Request: fold
Amino acid sequence: MKTKITQSPSIAARFIQHGEVVAFPTETVYGLGANVLNEEAIQKIFIAKERPSDNPLIAHVYELSQLELITSGIPAIAAKLIEAFFPGPLTVILPKNDKVPPVATAGLKTIGVRMPKDPVARQFLRACGAPVVAPSANLSGRPSPTTWQAVRDDLDGRISCILKGEQTKFGLESTVVDCAGDRPVILRAGAVTLEELQTVIPQTQSSTGTGGGLHKSPGTQHRHYAPLAKVILTTFPQYTVPMNSSAYIGLESPPNAGAFKRIFICKDYEEYAHELFHFFRECDRAGVETIYCQTVVEEGLGLALLDRIKRASQV
Ligand code: TXA
Ligand code: MG
Reply:
């Protein structure tokens, strides 16, 4: 299959309307979209990504009225979060209705929903005229794509179209929040922090990070975010020993910085999040064999960052 690369949201949307899959930018990472009501198109997402069929997809809406097309009722706490964080990098889990094919949600009775803020994503979703289900637009297991070139590296020839945009603003995926109980529970840490959620609903809890893990998103059990290089989480940069082809990313510079094949010192957690997946992919392209990632504190964006780095370091 020839993959069309375009900057036109309306051309990209036409592929969706014809039952094809399209990669598009959002403020978190690039997504690989299909019409939420088209079962055959959704199956193409799973095939293109080689995604396990037990991993449910997130639906992306252009406006709140589209929620009625795919959900059945919005719990009060979800409504509060939607009011505070839509459009933005937050996904809320809602009860789904019968129109959504089971393949979209891996058989679950719920569906994750989010409304992106990125202007190109919004133009695209508006032109599609229907909610679009989309996982991250990477091959399953690889780091999520933060540039259109990263999408092309993974999916060229496997999908119909890539909608070209800028490098994504956050560089990490959305925060996934379960709203079925009496308080919101973070199932996957992401670009909206626990602290930000707590300013709206102070009882919000995290099931990720230390001490958590009771109920998590199905997808967070799969190996994820991994470059080809071995990832090592390091607490003390002063002890990292640069080997032949190693790289380093973190907040503080290690000694012998010049001996690393690639190095990125981030000024804060935002920059660390913005660069992490991009850095992984650049290291792979440069033939790096070992990537040291400096650890972060589990607060603010650190919760999501540490989750991604830890998972990337699992073998
Ligand atoms: O920022 C993002 O969320 C990006 C952009 C494209 O929107 N999407 C993304 O999708 O990261 P994906 O498929 O790579 O990750 C979705 C996560 C998975 O961990 C999945 O298990 C979880 O959300 N999820 C989706 N629907 C769910 C549901 N109904 N219940 C629980 N978890 C769900
Ligand atoms: Mg993903």
Remarks:
- The chain is about 30% helix and 20% strand.
- The longest strand covers residues 90-95.
